[in-house]
Amino acid sequence: MQQQLEQIQQRIHKACEQVGRAVAEVRLLPVSKTFGHERVQQAIDLGLMRFGENRVQDIRARVEHFQNPAIQWVMIGHAQTNKAKDIARYASELQSLDRLALAQALQQRLELEQRTLPVFIQVKTAQEQTKSGLEPSELMPFLQQLQAFDRLEPLGLMTMATQTEDQQEIRRCFAALRQLRDQALELGFDSIQRLSMGMSGDFELAIAEGATDIRVGSALFGQR
């Protein structure tokens, strides 16, 4: 796994170099979903301490297995409202906030847990029906409503590009998210700084369009 991690770091370095960005601006989120605890332990041994999971029940299992409060478990999959209790208790960050009902449920649970939760708002920039997220036109009203929930700490926006070989279409998705982030900042939503976009096969394109967080699974852990 060390070789894979070094290759990813080299790819990040090269992608940043090509567009004049500092490597320190890009945060790697290893996506450990579906991989066994022993594979995750290998990543921990390499110094990785943040991991993305698709299901909150898997985050709970990780927390119970590793029992290390220094490890951060990030919820990146579609979050069901009835799972708000476990997200509030076990997740260190949520990258898929996409509706008001979920924000309300999390607020209530976070009050009980007496903690706050960093969140990314998921925006649908692809045309595919299978993709989750707010429509771009819904983002600014949603950010306005989100100000009422003091237990949620908005950090930025997240998107998943169209599943295609067409690099122009992929870049369009990433550019659209960056433009929405810039609009949010212009409107005074100052905390919306980060952009979580790009995965194993396309994160160079995401970095070129301003990604600050890339979600990498298969390039690090191998094929599922």
What does this structure look like?
The protein has 224 residues and is of the alpha/beta class. The protein is 43% helix and 17% strand. It contains nine helices and eight strands. It has a six-stranded parallel sheet. A two-stranded parallel ribbon has the order 1-8. The longest helix has 20 residues, at 167-186. The radius of gyration is 17 Å and the shape is globular. It starts with a helix and ends with a helix.
Short description:
The chain is α/β, with parallel strands linked by helices.
Entry keywords:
224 residues, alpha/beta, 6-stranded parallel sheet, 9 helices, 43% helix
- Helix fraction? 40-55%
Structural class by SSE content: alpha/beta
Average residue-wise pLDDT: 96
- From the N-terminal CA to the C-terminal CA, the straight-line distance is 14 Å
Low-pLDDT segments: none
Topology as a string of helices (H) and strands (E): HEHEHEHEHEHEHEHEH
Largest sheet: 6 strands, parallel
Principal-axes geometry comes out as globular
Within the largest sheet, what's the order of strands?
A: 2-3-4-5-6-7
- Number of helix segments? 9
Beta content: 15-25%
Please compute the radius of gyration using only Cα atoms: 17 Å
Count the strands? 8
